[in-house]
Every structure is written in C-alpha cells, then in structure tokens.
Design goal:
By secondary structure, this protein is of the alpha+beta class. The protein is about 20% helix and about 35% strand. The strands form three sheets. Strands 8, 9, 10, 11, 12, 13, 14, 15, 16, 17 and 18 form an eleven-stranded mixed beta sheet that branches. Strands 1-2-7-4-5 form a five-stranded antiparallel beta sheet, with no helix packed on it.
Length: about 300
C-alpha cells in the first residue's frame, strides 16, 4: 500500500524560447514494506512495465533523496519515493572541462590543460568558450556566454564566465575590486631556494608574442606576483603564486625571472615535464558575485599529477 502525495514543487519556469516547463515530480510515501519495482507498478497502473523500467534506467526515481535503479530495492514504511516524469536533462559532461558552479549570471569552470579559453585564427571550436556556448544553447537557443578573463592553453584551472554582457562589463570594469584572491600552483625546476617573496616587474610583449620583464615603466605594464614555497626536493619545488595583477603569462615570466621556470614550459625556459604538461594550475578564486554581492570561493586543490613529483 502507498499514499500518493501532491506533485512536488519542481521550481521550474518556462523559458522564453518556448521550451516546455520543468518536468513534473511525483512524490509517494510508502505505507508498508515492498520492493521498488512492485511499488512503482502499483502506483502507475496506467503505465506499461517497459515505461516503469525506463524510469529506473534513466535515474528518474529516488528513495529518500537517493537515485535508485535496482528493481529489487527494498522499501520500508515511511520511505519517500520521488519520480520525475517527462524530459530529464542530462548533466553536462565534457572531457576538457567541468562546470564547478552555475547560476543565472555566471558559470565557473575547471579547465583542463590543452584547451584554449577562446577562439584564435586557427582554432574556433576546441575552446572553453565554444563548449560552454553550445551547452547553454542546448537549453535555450538564445543563450550566450561572455569571456571575463583568460587562462593560457597550457594552464589548467578555474575560469569565470558571464551569461550576459552587463555582468561581463561589471566584472571586467571592477575586476581589481571584485576579485579578492587568485592563487595558482606551479612546479618549478631547479628548486626554489626562497620560502616566500614578491616578484615585481613591468611586462611587455615582442613581435613574436613573447612576454618579457623590463624595468622601464614606459615599455610595459606593472605586474606583481607573491609566491610561497609549498614543497621541495632535490629536483623540483611546488610553489603557490598569488596574483596581485593579472597580466598575460605573468607567472610564467616571473618564475623564469627567478631562474626557476615552470617545468614543461619550454617557451619560458622550462625543462621537459615528466607529467607531460606545463605544471601550472589556477586552483583558487575568490570574488564578489556581480549580482548578489555575496563572496564566492572556489578551490580545486593541487592536481594529483603535481603531487606525484614529490612522493
């Protein structure tokens, strides 16, 4: 036996492009011991056995808030079974990035190394911008995504995107005030002797798009990086870098200036990387939400591959 409750609040709203509202969620309270398949067949007498099986197979059934797929999942009196009816959006997955956070105004992602932030003359599709744009358009054809800041192709880690031009402009215009903290983790070689310090220089770019440090303020823009040594051994040091300014290739150039270039970063003097990548990761970002005004913090920690160099 069971008691059927009113459909649960789906908290959905109809999209402007005419897409249907969020799926209906039915809620049922178990009144006596049973197994899940028998329970569902008794509840949905007007549905075929195949249809009820599909609810389970597609993860549309939860017991006590936990998704269940097993036909013989035991049920006890008092258990709450929820069934989502209608189209269920599949969670976003992509081998080159994952969505860490999303709301109506922003998306925070964790980008893999090797993926461009945005299009270049030679590549327009294999970019974080394109992947996110296609993801949003799959839900709403009128949706757009806007670049707020960039990560180098070789760098992995956290990136922030805006869902409207207004939010993009607000973040970029007030970047120094709204972004409270940006920390990277790098593995450098040879090992860094200093435990902590500050690197300050003016960065300029030559005709070959190589960024370099200069002491001439008329030639470049001021860049400041604070660093702290986290781990070290005979070959490498793991260094935490905190940006006080966000200039192109800033950390890569400043580590070269310290004569401790990032491993794998051959463009800026680094040795070959035993982990097969440039060892630079944007692991932490803390900022003021552009709409709510709340402080947001995201931290992905140190990549496992970096840790293998210190075992």
């Amino acid at each position: 036996m069971m008691k059927k409750n009113r459909p649960a609040d789906t908290a959905g709203r109809k999209r402007d492009n005419g897409a249907s509202a969020a799926p209906r969620v039915d809620e049922h309270t178990v009144t006596e011991p049973s197994v899940l398949m028998e329970f569902l067949l008794a509840v949905y007498k007007d549905k075929s056995r195949t249809t009820v099986k599909s609810y389970l197979a597609h993860g549309q059934v939860t017991v006590g808030g936990v998704a269940k797929t097993g036909f013989d999942t035991p049920l006890c009196a008092g258990d709450v079974v929820r069934v989502t009816l209608g189209h269920v959006e599949k969670p976003f997955t992509h081998k080159m990035l994952r969505i860490v956070y999303e709301d109506d105004d922003i998306i925070v992602i964790d980008k893999r190394n090797g993926l461009l932030s945005m299009a270049t003359d030679s590549e327009r599709i294999k970019t974080a911008y394109y992947i996110l744009s296609e993801y949003l358009k799959s839900k709403d054809r009128s949706a757009r995504i806007f670049i707020v800041h960039r990560l180098d192709r070789e760098t992995s880690g956290l990136m922030l995107f805006a869902k409207s031009m207004d939010v993009q402009h607000k973040l970029q215009k007030n970047w120094e005030d709204m972004v409270l903290e940006r920390k990277y983790v790098a593995v450098v070689s040879p090992p860094m002797r200093e435990e902590e310090g500050v690197i300050s220089s003016y960065l300029a770019e030559n005709k070959a798009y190589m960024v370099y440090s200069t002491k001439n303020p008329d030639e470049g823009e001021l860049a400041v990086t604070r660093f702290r040594r986290l781990k070290t051994n005979s070959r490498y040091s793991m260094v935490e870098c905190m940006l006080e300014t966000g200039k192109k290739n800033q950390i890569r150039v400043h580590m070269k200036d310290k004569r401790c270039p990032i491993i794998g970063d051959k463009r800026y003097g680094g040795i070959s990387s035993p982990i097969g990548r440039v060892a630079l990761h944007a692991g932490r970002i803390r900022f003021i939400h552009p709409t709510s005004g709340k402080e947001m913090l995201f931290d992905t920690g140190v990549p496992a591959l970096f840790e293998t160099l210190f075992r």
